[in-house]
Amino acid sequence: MEDSKTLEAELLAEIAAADSLDALEAVRVKALGKKGLVTARLRSLGAMTPDERRVMGPALNAMKSRLAAAIAERRAALENAELDARLVEERLDMTLPVAPREMGHIHPLTQVLDELSEIFADLDFAVAEGPHIEDDFHNFTALNIPAHHPARQMHDTFYLVPDETGERKLLRTHTSPVQIRTMLRQEPPIRIIAPGRTFRSDSDATHTPMFHQVEGLVVDRETHMGHLKGCLEAWLSAFFEVDRIRMRFRPSYFPFTEPSAEVDINCSRQDGRLVVGEGEDWLEVLGCGMVHPNVLRACNLDPEVYQGFAFGAGLDRLAMLKYGMTDLRPFFEADQRWLAHYGFDPLEVPTIAGGLSR
Amino acid sequence: MKFTLSWLRDHLETDAGLDTIVATLTRIGLEVEAVVDVARLLAPFTVAEVIEALPHPDADRLKLCRVRTADGEVQVVCGAPNARTGMKAVFAPVGAHIPGTGITLKAARIRGVESRGMLCSEREMMLSDDHEGIIELDPEAPIGAPFAEVAGLDDPVIDIAVTPNRPDALGVAGIARDLAAAGLGSVTTPPVTPVAGAFDCPIAVATEDESACPLFAGRLVRGVRNGPSPAWLRRRLEAIGLRPISALVDITNYLTHDRARPLHVYDAAKLKGTVRARLAAPGERLRALDGRDYETRGGECLIADDAGPLGFGGVIGGEASGTSAATVDVFIESALFDPVRTAETGRRHGIDSDARYRFERGVDPAFVIPGLELATQMVLDLCGGTASRLVVAGKEPAPPSAITFDPTRVKTLGGVDLSTARVRAILESLGFVWAEADGSAEVTPPSWRPDIAGAADLVEEVLRIHGYDSIPAVDLPRHQGVARATLTEGQRRARAVKRRLAVEGLDEAVTYSFMDARLARRFGAPETLAIANPISSELGMMRPSIVPNLLLAGGRNRDRGAENVALFEVGPVYHGSAPEDQLEVATALRMGARQRRGWRAPERAVDAHDAKADALAALAAAGAPVDKLQVVAGAPDWYHPGRSATFRLGPKTVLAQFGELHPRLLADLDLRGPAVATEVFLDRVPLPRRRASRARPALRLTNLPAVSRDFAFLVDRDVQVGELLRAIAAADRAHITEVELFDVYEGEGVGKGRKSVAITVRLSPVERTFTDSEIEAIAARIVAAAARACGAELRR
After folding, report:
1. ∠ at Cα B679 (B674, B685), nearest 5°?
2. Does A104 contact B568 at a Cβ distance shorter than 8 Å?
3. Whole-prediction pTM
4. In chain B, which residues have their Cβ closer than 8 Å to the Cβ of A250?
5. Which residues pair with A276 in a beta bridge?
6. Residues B505, A104: C-beta atoms closer than 8 Å
7. Beta bridge partners of A198
8. Within an 8 Å CB–CB cutoff, is residue B745 touching chain A?
9. What CATH number does the domain located at A108-342 have?
10. Mean pLDDT in runs of 10 for chain B (796 residues)?
């Protein structure tokens, strides 16, 4: 018994002294291995008398458990120490740059169109589209632009070479043909906006041979000029993100509307910077009016029954006014520096709930 | 259309000042573009007297002037050769802004002598380019009087933009009528009194084509003196930018602007026989008053006598028959010309004139004779002489017919509730004639308003005079409840594709729908897409593909220092001129490196498979059934023949084409590769099936452990790995959930013309854990399928 106690004490001391996992393993083999000291004693139980065994059996097994626990405890301590030592060595320069996961940019025209689509969806307007290569009827005749109107001359309109039937197609000079196609296709009530590419033979800082318009059309039985004002006020305020934009309606002339108006909104000009929706200056933004009876007739609608309004604005110009570009030409030059500066994060989707812009 | 305030006051008696008049003009649709108030601009400049002009002590060409001004005596150094003692001159004090130089005057020492102000030249006042000397004023001009007043420049000039429907506003009298209707006073235009003729006009007139010239009138005035016009007339013409010529010509110009009544005067001595309006034959020649020679193409409306053309009717007169200082007998023409033909003649020959401007918009057909009477009276007043009786050919067109008008249209169309009395008063003030009929009215437009055709026009007249700003804004009635979606599937899809491609690191471009014709043909554009009148040769044809525009943009970005280009555009391409030939195509271009050189990985150049990944991203965003698409090698000839392909749905429908761009194309455009492109045809992506329910099928998951097995196959080099993967996936659809390629190897150890393809297959049990023999059975099916489809051998 005495002997066993001494052995246990010695082994516990050795376990405590083991300074590495290898040393600890050596102690374990020495004590509990197949040929270990404790193992040998346990084996010797067979040669003992039953009485001796009754005493020594539990004693030796208890000792084995205690030693195993001590070894486990020591192993955990040594492993922790070893991990700590390794962690001291494991260091990265966290200032090293990582290659950014770069996103591209959404063109301001797309962004502005998405903003308008949101606004007009809230006002029940669908988005209508039509072909860019048009014919005389849809671009001019149906819009009450007589054959001798100056806009029909080569000066403003791009024409394609005549086709095999001799017909001379043209590039639409406004998005108004979409209004015609919509009225020919769909029974009133109609509420659409028609955004898209338009083409005129013109080129300087504020004119490019291709540009974009957005037009609106409402046709039903009772919409009048007061509704036109209300509608314009609603969308212009929403688009420019001001509480209530101030507008000035000036009588004007377009062949396809009667009465016709040009619309100015209030703005301020300070240090060459234009701010829309505040100040006392006026800025012309769009043309509008009540759909001309001849246009309704051209679309097989009886002007005694149906009426409504139409408006049109430059989409590029709206983008410029809201986002501060001063030159139209770079819109179409695909300069990545310009796109990065004036473009939008693709995840910045304009919504009514989230706001149109940040 | 320019006019001066005093000119307007000839026709309008009003208490309103300039600012009110200007605001009202814009409000009623006569938009004021500019107001030049010279008096305001020249306010600091006053009359002064040079008491003494002495030589400058230190400069030969300068003079030292003692100047008497309203504020006392001032010393001014002056360089003008005509500065002399006793003259009256224009003085600008220190602090005055000199319009001609843009400088604000300061007290200065000039060659050691103090100078406190300036004596001004015409150029400094922006009156002319004359800088030879200072302005010399009338010796009687009172010292201190504003220069503008003394020089008769104190009449503000108003410039309005007149819309094409308002020819009546191309005369000052018509503008006054509108202002009076808007409540700004009363019209004071005197009625026209006919001038009795003293003899029969010896010159006969005729009109041969009454559609081109319905009415042609004239008369002779004998014994005139055609000197310069009086100062008031010259000043008015100069104020609106016209050059005074002689009294006779100035009278015609004056009435053109005063009454929108163009006229023409001929030296009767130079006329031979009957003066007639007729259509031109081709090849007739005319030297016009602008000094240019014209040759008719035929069909123009000519004024001619028995000797030949005298002028283009309603456009411009001829030089030979014009008046001069020597003119004694003058023949005055007042006629009516067809707007369309007048515009066509002007356009054809490139002639812009005040007459054309008015005739092509439509002059008052009822004012032909009164205009002639007015002109006659002015000639008699300014040039003397005796007038003949009138000669008239043709007849005045029928007056406009009455419009049946329900006054409540002002409310139902215009949105303003006005009493019938108010509606009637406005229309009558504009010259409309109102006749009551039961419930509605018969309204006859005045002869000077060719634009009025129906009730909508009448509503506009009432509204513009009442004021557009007084129309109450009303909200459009809105759909009950939450706003519904309004975009079409195509629009929704284009939106998603754009944002998806931008997330992939591509910048969205918008480029022109047209492009260089030669390049367009190379991309398959048919000749019907050529533009007849392009703005430049680089924009001569509609684009059949967006790739070339992006490539050229890529080159420009390179030139500006960008190494790597990543651009996309979602927009139209044109395969013909019919509406259905316009397709919406998402196009992406990458040039240079896909991944830049970095410390974690080397640079990786873009390759055809980057384009494939872009195509897949766009197709997925567009809602294409990506897992059902077939890849077919090869694409149109702007792609590298061996490094390009199409994605197809079924054998025929090409949803996308992509790959490396052809090296020859890049070389021809002087671009450095590598460059890859992707074109996704959004319109060809099938529309999703409309489902009754938004609910998705139930999700069936098992928590039994999945098993992965690796296979290495040897196949011929030409075997397309996609085929192999597809065959393996089909070997046991119930259990194979993923087939993933992790290596393709050619070279040592696999034999010539062969390649090794390493694949991981993931197997998921359905009901219970796999046994070894089940796994072996599936593996055997995989190997068999690979062998069958591609002749693949399992590599041992």
Report:
1. 155
2. yes
3. 0.87
4. 26-27, 29, 31, 468
5. A267
6. yes
7. A211
8. no
9. 3.30.930.10
10. 95 95 96 88 87 84 88 87 88 87 85 87 78 85 86 88 94 97 95 95 95 96 95 92 94 97 96 95 95 95 95 94 94 96 93 95 96 97 96 93 94 96 96 89 96 95 96 91 87 96 97 96 95 92 97 96 95 95 97 90 94 97 93 94 95 95 96 95 91 87 89 93 93 93 91 93 90 93 94 88
